[in-house]
Structures are given as structure tokens and as C-alpha cells.
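Homework help board

Subject: predicted structure for assignment chain

Our instructor gave us this sequence and asked us to write out the predicted structure in C-alpha cell form, then describe one feature. I got the C-alpha cells but I'm not sure how to describe them. Can anyone check?
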Amino acid sequence: MKAVRFHEVGGPEVLRIEQIGEPTPAAGQVRLRVAASAFNAADTGMRAGSLPISVKLPHVPGYDVSGTIDAIGDGVEDFAVGDPVIGFLPMTDDGGAAEYVVAPADSVVAAPASVPLEDAAALPSVALTARQALFDDGGLEAGQRVLIVGAGGVVGKYAIALAKRAGAYVIATASPWSEDAVRAAGADEIIDHTQTAVQDAVTDQVDLLLNLAPIEPDEFTALVGLVGDGGVVVSTTAWMPAPDDADRGVRSVVVFVQSDADKLRELVGLVDAGVLTVEVTRRVPLEELPAVHADAAEGRIAGKVIVIP
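My C-alpha cell output:
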């Protein structure tokens, strides 16, 4: 089968298009004929060796995947050959940038019926990140106030929609080119961070600060004052710690997204119910994945890119 792999960490040039053997599902696994995999920012860190995620080389990237089950290992009872599914695969295992991939059966769920199967690969890890950040790590409850910094990206829009569904009041920072999308996601207040300092725009303290942006540590620390006593700071910026304020009981958490089939199944239901949308800005063939990595290195990736074998 055709696959993209890297045999050593480094720049986008280490990615190779190769012909390798088709994987065979072991007990508890299923094999997917891949419809698409999604490119994520963490893929670049894993390829470059800059994230603390150890992978066995050579490695196939693409931990977000959609496809059709075409083989089933022993002990798998919840799926049948031909089922369309999506999954957030173990990040240390080979991913979906290939024609076939094996996956733990408990990492995949039935695909949403309301979007094309290829596009559904864009959902798993980003939607799970938003959900985990808000509720598992942030403990968000109805009636609370949440400030989402860097809300114009994919995770941010999911976070807005999920927080609003939970009954929270959402303040979101965005740039002029993402303001309409943030408003459509349901934000109650939008701060144009290119024109206004966030500290000046937020007049009442929030219960939860969710940071999704690569801001400077000093700027991040200054935002903690916007969180009320006993509140929480949650961040997806794994390369730096999240600041807290122990004197006021403000704790901090850095999100390390986890695969969770039950929660992913819930998110699929929200897609089919029209609460969440799956947006894909670019579709590329497998052969162009190295070019996508190169674009990401130059900051030329916006929105969600899916890779079709």
C-alpha cells in the first residue's frame, strides 16, 4: 500500500512516499481503508522531534482518521466490515497517512452521517481538545463566564459552541478575518485583539480562561488577573506552562488531549444534530502531505487540511 513515513526526525523533507505492506489487525483492533486523515499542528512537532511524544521509526503520521472497516481482529464485536468510522488514533502508533491503518477498536466510533466521510477526519482530536479543556480540565458549568483567547481557530470555534450549549457566557478574542466565524459559533462578546488589549476589554472577571494562542509568557501571566478567585486557567500550549495564582486559588492546567470513544461519540451526535459543524478548508492527495508540512513551517496553514489517499 502507499503511505507517507519518516525514518528520522527533521524538517518536511524527511517525509517520504513509500510502498509498504498492508497492516493486519491484531486482537481488539480493526483495519480501516482510509478515506482521509487530518493534518494537525502536532504532526509537525512529532516529525521534527520537538514534542515529548515518542514514536517508533519509521512512522506514519496522521492520528485523526476516517475510513471504512475492512478487516476485524479477534474479540471485536461492536463493528462489522463496511462500517464507516472516525477515530483519534494513539499518537505513538502509525497513523492514517496511508491507504490502510489498524486502530484499537475502542478508539473509533461510527462516523457522522451528515458530512462526507472524508471530511469527518477533521473532527476527532480538535473537538475532543475543546471538550476536554472546557469540562474535564476546566470544570465549566452553566452560568459561568469563559474567556477564550485565540478563538478564531478550529478548536476555538468548537469551544465556543460547546460552552454556549452548556449555558456559559462566552467572551472570545479574534482577529478581523476570523471575527465573523467566531460570531457564527455563538460568542457573546468578541474582542479584536489587534486593536484592543484584552485586559482593558474584559471588565468583569471570568471563571475560566482558555488560551489557544501562542502568546508570550508575560502576556499570558497578565491575563490571569482576569480570572476570579477560585477560577481556572487552561491552555493548549504544551510548549510552555500555564500560569496560576495560588494566593487566590486560581489553578492552571495544560491540555494533553486523550482519546475517548464515548466523548467522541457524543461529539458526532452534536455534528449530526447541527450543534457542531465540520469545516475543511483544503483537501490534498497523499502525495502533497510533505508540501502541507512545509506550508505549516512557514505559517501558511489556516483552517483544517485533510489528506486523501
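Reply (TA_rk): Your C-alpha cells look well-formed. For the description, you could write something like this. The radius of gyration is 20 Å. That's the kind of observation they're looking for.
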